[in-house]
Amino acid sequence: MTEYFASSQLDQLSAAEPVERLITQYLLERVPEFRDLSELRRKGWDNPKGDTFFKNQRQNADNPDKKTSEWFFRMMKQIAEELHISTDAFSINPPYGRKPRILDLCMAPGGYLYTALQKVPGAEALAFSLPTSNGGHQVLLRQTQGVECRFLDVTMLAADMGTDTIPASHPESDGFIERQLQAREKFDLVLCDGQVLRTHIRPEYRESQEAVRLHTAQLVLGLEHLEPLGTMVVLLHKLEAYRTVSVIRRFSTFSNVKLFKPSKSHCTRSSFYMVATHVQSQHDNAIRAIAEWKTMWNMTTFGTKEDYLRHAENAKKEEYVQFENFGPELVRLGRDIWRIQRDALARAPFIRNTH
Prior knowledge:
Layout: H1 9-30, H2 32-46, H3 48-62, H4 66-87, E1 101-104, H5 111-119, E2 124-129, E3 147-151, E4 187-192, H6 210-224, E5 226-237, H7 242-252, E6 256-260, E7 271-279, H8 284-302, H9 305-347, H10 349-352
Parallel strand pairs: 1-2, 1-4, 2-3, 4-5
Antiparallel strand pairs: 5-7, 6-7
Protein name: Ribosomal RNA methyltransferase FtsJ domain-containing protein
Pfam family, one: FtsJ
GO molecular function, one term: methyltransferase activity
């Protein structure tokens, strides 16, 4: 019997460790903002008050009352507004005679889509969102003409990810969802800002690799259904992580890439946004990236731990080789991201009061 993926975080990290060290050392030697941030992170890890600070944030996010949910919705609208001012992300121009089309792959509570619709009058939108019955956030975006919302788990869209045959022995063989996007269905703007929810009810076998499954599903669905020269907005974490660097490097070969971190919200966290504009979605490098992300999703959904580790080792070797050329561009793109997080952490009470 096939034992489906159940690797530990240590297994996952061991494959990436050499290239992570290379990237970290490169940045420490060249980027003062990153050096400062690394020291502040160390102070935060050493201070129990830091654990309490982030624990309280997680509790508020996981168990929001009505007031907290509405505050979160407003905050996401503000972040989207700031992102647009900084990057012009929502300025899309479809061919004459056709309405703009937006795909939001993880919509709830809907603040990002709300702002995008405000910036693109008359746009049509298709949005996916995890059902609240499965632990998803409540959608606060009012019903809007031209906007269709489908409640589903995007990590279970096997047909859309290129897998038509599900092994009968798979723990969730009956849980995969029929195709949602037709091959020729294209969008001018794609929002990929979903992240794994601690409230999401899912089988144990998915726990260790759910972030990879969700991330790759969004990238594949977004890029494969993006109009040529369209725009993608992608939520990423920890800029120096090799998988994050890999995504940015790949997009840089077939689009114009900007990075954005809000200046008022989520500043102490490592999260930020990649805005890719003028995306050549039919470029050979884009097609190769889609194939690689499909493989990663397939490995973490149907493969064994050994399959995944072999594949991750090869991916790590490629990134190790590629980083020498991409390093200067990463520094240029990332300096403001590290600066904003550094300044926010320096003001945080669990850092400010340490001696």
